[in-house]
């Protein structure tokens, strides 16, 4: 739509600004809170401008954490979250792209059955099958381990369909040209399919990284050792302090820190990510 | 370089559709064969069976002296040029050309030599480091041909390689393909539905209809002596007039019952001609004028010089010896 009316432009900008304010305000409040002391918050009026305790609060979180709620320093939890998010993102991409490759390019017995099995996992996210999954993970002795944190979340096929769609848009003639050029299946996968799905992989990586980073219920359930606490679940543990008021300034400082890696991933992969979402030319 | 022999080749697709039946062609070493026919007649299917992209349901295909029915496409020593080029979009032109050679473990120096040579022949040197996306249709077509040339295969297979180009470029590329093939003397099979392209390129034409061969012959043979009404109507532009012999008076007795074929250019205006045509429409082509009309209930097209006089009814005559006679039921030529 190409319009050139100043009134409309103004309106559009006002709407956008209102949107930005609505989204940004809670983040701002969290940031402000993380720069005050605990007592400033309990006094009844919430301050709207940053206070003088920024360095102190963040240093404390990075260094020792909140010992009263039994959480380790933020660094450990961030590392756990990072490992978990990366494993989930990479694992899911690896599994999905290979299964999509099999489904699109090979005719094997029970192919339709395999396809439907994958399809059904779409309807069964972890939250739905959480009790049996917990049982299985516990029986396999994977509680309090990275394997237990990630494998149940990797094993679902959402992304298979994305890659299937991508592969279906690759013209048959390209596949045939590769066949004539002597590229066997694996070579075709490596030399043609992977590079052609590069932008989709990047887009998916961003989405899955954030998905993995934001996991809450599952890590909360299966980690009992503080060595494996993830940051999102950790924030929750900090917030329910048993023997006193939650230390909101520290919780907010942790929340601010927890936001950084996803933001970094989004900014870092922005160019590829947007390309992956909008690109149609193959 | 090699000869290609198709022996009673047929294709039945899963589901039972018969796309090709009983096709036998002997293609000599270095020959340029064009498969031509209307859409859906099985040209691509036939070509793809030679390429190995489609399983052969019946008969045998030999390339050189080797039966290739069960040999992978990459090992058949052929190169194929596709209609939409099928260039690898993420590779530069150079990588596109080199990819097949790399997969066959050709030494690097040899790859470079062949790529440089193909680039020189096709004048794509300046684009070698571009991606296909940054090329025009004609340039992409050249790259696709380059990819075939560098392989130095026993045969080139073309599946409508020019149909994505505009009319003018099609004519120049057509000539280039012809010259290239002359020069390399590589056996070639070329698929097209454009009869003009077929006529200009072919050493021999194979006219297909509904999966079967109607006629094989040099372009002139096929043009002068079409073997059936199908070929007569398909080859030549404007198409040959096919009318019932009853509409033409004073025919020799042998021709009394059948279908008569007359090429539009073999008809001319003559005040005392045997045919009277009621004019329905006129197409001006510049050098020529096509007059469409009807005579005795049959449609007729006449090609005449653009300065010939026109009126609502025209009396026409045909060049002696220019009538083609076809069997009324089978449609086969009667000599
Ligand atoms: N995979 C397939 N399965 C079943 N039938 C097919 C398949 N591919 C082609 N056919 C049928 O086989 C016949 C020949 O198809 P083919 O593609 O060889 O035609 P063509 O002569 O190349 O036509 P065009 O000029 O339109 O490319 C058609 O009737 C088509 O419907
Ligand atoms: Mg075709």
UniProtKB/TrEMBL annotation, chain A:
BP-aspect Gene Ontology terms: transmembrane transport
Pfam families: BPD_transp_1 (PF00528)
Keyword tRNA-binding attached: no
Membrane topology according to the record: Multi-pass membrane protein
Record PROSITE patterns: ABC_TM1 (PS50928)
Chain ranges passing through the membrane: 7-33, 82-106, 113-131, 143-163, 192-213, 248-267
Cell location: Cell inner membrane; Cell membrane
Subunit structure comment from the entry: The complex is composed of two ATP-binding proteins (UgpC), two transmembrane proteins (UgpA and UgpE) and a solute-binding protein (UgpB).
Family from the record: Belongs to the binding-protein-dependent transport system permease family.
PANTHER family found in the cross-reference section: ABC TRANSPORTER PERMEASE PROTEIN MG189-RELATED-RELATED, SN-GLYCEROL-3-PHOSPHATE TRANSPORT SYSTEM PERMEASE PROTEIN UGPE
The name this protein goes by in its record: sn-glycerol-3-phosphate transport system permease protein UgpE
Automatic annotation (TrEMBL), chain B:
Keywords noted in UniProt: ATP-binding, Cell inner membrane, Cell membrane, Membrane, Nucleotide-binding, Sugar transport, Translocase, Transport
Coiled-coil region: none
Gene Ontology MF terms in the entry: ABC-type transporter activity; ATP binding; ATP hydrolysis activity
GO BP term, pick one: carbohydrate transport
Highest taxon listed in the record's lineage: Bacteria
Annotated family: Belongs to the ABC transporter superfamily.
Keyword Nucleotide-binding assigned: yes
CDD domains xrefs: ABC_MalK_N (cd03301)
Keyword Membrane: yes
PANTHER family from the UniProt entry: MALTODEXTRIN IMPORT ATP-BINDING PROTEIN MSMX, SN-GLYCEROL-3-PHOSPHATE IMPORT ATP-BINDING PROTEIN UGPC
SMART domains: AAA
All copies of domain ABC transporter, residue ranges: 4-235
Gene Ontology CC entries for this record: ATP-binding cassette (ABC) transporter complex, substrate-binding subunit-containing
SUPFAM superfamilies with a match to the protein in the record: MOP-like, P-loop containing nucleoside triphosphate hydrolases
Protein's recorded name: sn-glycerol-3-phosphate ABC transporter ATP-binding protein UgpC
């Amino acid at each position: 739509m190409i319009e050139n009316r100043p009134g409309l432009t103004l309106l559009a900008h006002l709407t956008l600004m209102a949107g930005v304010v609505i989204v940004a305000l809670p983040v701002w409040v969290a940031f402000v809170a993380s720069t005050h002391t605990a007592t400033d918050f309990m006094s009844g009026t919430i301050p709207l401008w940053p206070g003088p305790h920024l360095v102190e609060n963040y240093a404390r979180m990075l260094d020792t954490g909140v010992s009263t709620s039994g959480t380790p320093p933020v660094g450990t939890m961030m590392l756990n979250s990072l490992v978990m998010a990366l494993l989930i993102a990479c694992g899911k991409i690896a599994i999905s792209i290979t299964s999509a490759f099999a489904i699109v390019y090979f005719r094997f017995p029970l192919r339709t059955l395999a396809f439907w099995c994958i399809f059904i996992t779409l309807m069964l996210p972890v939250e739905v099958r959480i009790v049996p999954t917990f049982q299985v993970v516990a029986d396999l002795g994977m509680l309090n381990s990275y394997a237990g944190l990630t494998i149940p979340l990797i094993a679902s096929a959402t992304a298979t369909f994305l890659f299937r769609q991508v592969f279906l848009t690759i013209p048959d003639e390209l596949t045939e040209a590769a066949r004539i050029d002597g590229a066997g299946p694996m070579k075709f996968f490596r030399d043609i399919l992977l590079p052609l799905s590069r932008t989709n992989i990047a887009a998916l990586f961003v989405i899955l990284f954030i998905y993995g980073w934001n996991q809450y219920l599952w890590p909360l359930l299966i980690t009992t050792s503080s060595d494996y606490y993830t940051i999102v679940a950790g924030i929750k543990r900090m917030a329910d302090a048993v023997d006193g008021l939650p230390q909101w300034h520290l919780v907010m400082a942790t929340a601010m820190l927890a936001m950084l890696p996803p933001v970094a991933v989004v900014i870092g992969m922005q160019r590829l990510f947007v390309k992956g979402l909008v690109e149609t030319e193959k | 370089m090699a000869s290609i022999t198709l022996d009673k080749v047929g294709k039945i697709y899963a589901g039972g559709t018969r796309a090709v039946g009983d096709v036998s062609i002997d293609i000599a070493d270095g020959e340029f064969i064009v498969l031509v026919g209307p859409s859906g007649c099985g040209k691509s299917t036939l070509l793809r069976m030679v390429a190995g992209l489609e399983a052969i349901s019946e008969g045998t295909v030999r390339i050189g002296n080797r039966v290739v029915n069960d040999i992978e496409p990459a090992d058949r020593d052929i190169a194929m040029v596709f209609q939409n080029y099928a260039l690898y979009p993420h590779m530069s032109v150079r990588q596109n050309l080199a990819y097949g050679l790399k997969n066959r473990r050709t030494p690097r120096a040899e790859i470079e030599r062949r790529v440089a040579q193909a680039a020189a022949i096709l004048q794509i040197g300046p684009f070698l480091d571009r991606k296909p996306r940054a090329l025009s249709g004609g340039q992409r077509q050249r790259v696709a041909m380059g990819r075939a040339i560098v392989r130095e295969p026993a045969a080139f297979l073309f599946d409508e390689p020019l149909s994505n180009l505009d009319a003018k470029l099609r004519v120049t590329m057509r000539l280039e393909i012809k010259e290239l093939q002359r020069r390399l003397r590589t056996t070639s099979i070329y698929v097209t539905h454009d009869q003009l392209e077929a006529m200009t390129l072919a050493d021999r034409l194979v006219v297909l209809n509904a999966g079967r061969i109607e006629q094989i012959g040099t372009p002139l043979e096929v043009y002068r002596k079409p073997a059936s009404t199908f070929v007569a109507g398909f080859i030549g532009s404007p198409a040959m007039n096919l009318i019932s012999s009853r509409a033409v008076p004073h025919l020799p007795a042998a021709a009394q019952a059948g279908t008569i074929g007359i090429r539009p250019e073999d008809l001319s205006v003559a005040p005392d001609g045997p045919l009277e045509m009621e004019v329905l429409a006129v197409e001006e082509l510049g050098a020529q004028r096509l007059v469409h009309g009807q005579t005795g209930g049959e449609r007729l097209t006449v090609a005449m010089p653009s300065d010939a006089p026109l009126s609502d009814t025209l009396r026409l005559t045909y060049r002696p010896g220019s009538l083609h006679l076809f069997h009324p039921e089978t449609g086969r030529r009667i000599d």
